[in-house]
Write a structure and sequence with these properties.
heterotrimer, A mainly alpha (85), B mainly alpha (115), C mainly alpha (32), A: 85 residues, mainly alpha, 91% helix, 0% strand, elongated, B: 115 residues, 3 helices
Chain lengths: 85, 115, 32
């Protein structure tokens, strides 16, 4: 498995180089430049979505905390009723 | 044998650093030929941003999953406790021959919603 | 697809939040 790990490590680097090579002449052709700017715009939109998603997760964590508080007070109530019984 | 292994190891290390150097030179060339401008970023920058987005997405998903599971668990615990408490309260009311306090309509609706 | 994945997750998170807020309100009504 060490050799396999080494192999995938080297392959990954070669893959990155191939990818970068294919981008080498990317900026020169107007049509491909257009695709670049579209990708740039998409990245901005996806980043904003991720920001919203992160805010939503923070909100859910707060909701979780209040649900836990609610649960604890209900369990206190149950103990009281049990005690009454 | 030891010497052979060391030699192989050196060869792999050399290959690794060569690959890193090729990558660095390519990126340097692209950045030089297509400097980032306000409206346009060069392909290398976009590639890096894309991989940053992917790892951020994975990190947020890993954070979101347990929160979502925990929320479901807490809600079911609340329902279970609420049901137990209400059942026991009604038993107590019967035993103490106290008049059962009738539930208001919205209490009934909410109880149904929760169950 | 990455954008679609993130949008789906965002909608799911929002829906769950709304459900939880409704749930908390309902429980508090019963607790009174």
């Amino acid at each position: 498995s060490d050799l396999e790990q080494l192999c995938s490590h080297v392959n990954e680097k070669i893959g990155n180089i191939k990818k970068t090579l294919s981008l080498r002449n990317f900026g020169q052709e107007p049509a491909l430049k257009n695709i670049l700017s579209k990708i740039g715009a998409e990245i901005i939109i996806v980043n904003e979505l991720l920001n919203e998603f992160e805010l939503e997760i923070q909100y859910q964590e707060q909701t979780n905390a209040s649900l836990k508080e609610l649960c604890e007070s209900l369990e206190e109530d149950f103990k009281d009723v049990e005690h009454l019984k | 044998m030891e010497a052979e292994v060391d030699k192989l190891e050196l060869m792999f290390q050399k290959a690794d650093s060569d690959l890193d150097y090729i990558q660095y030179r390519l990126e340097y060339e692209i950045k030089t030929n297509h400097p980032d401008s306000a409206g346009e970023k060069n392909p290398v920058t976009l590639l890096k941003e894309l991989s940053a987005i992917k790892s951020r997405h994975q990190a947020l998903y890993a954070r979101f999953k347990p929160v979502s599971v925990e929320q479901k668990e807490t809600k079911s615990r609340i329902c279970a406790t609420l049901n137990k408490t209400m059942t026991m309260t009604q038993e107590l009311q019967k035993q103490t021959v106290l008049e059962l306090s009738l539930r208001t309509d919205d209490e009934k609706a909410v109880a149904e919603q929760l169950t | 697809t990455l954008k679609a994945d993130i949008s789906i997750l965002l909608d799911k998170a929002r829906l769950e939040s709304q459900e939880s807020i409704g749930f908390i309100k309902a429980t508090k009504v019963l607790m009174k």
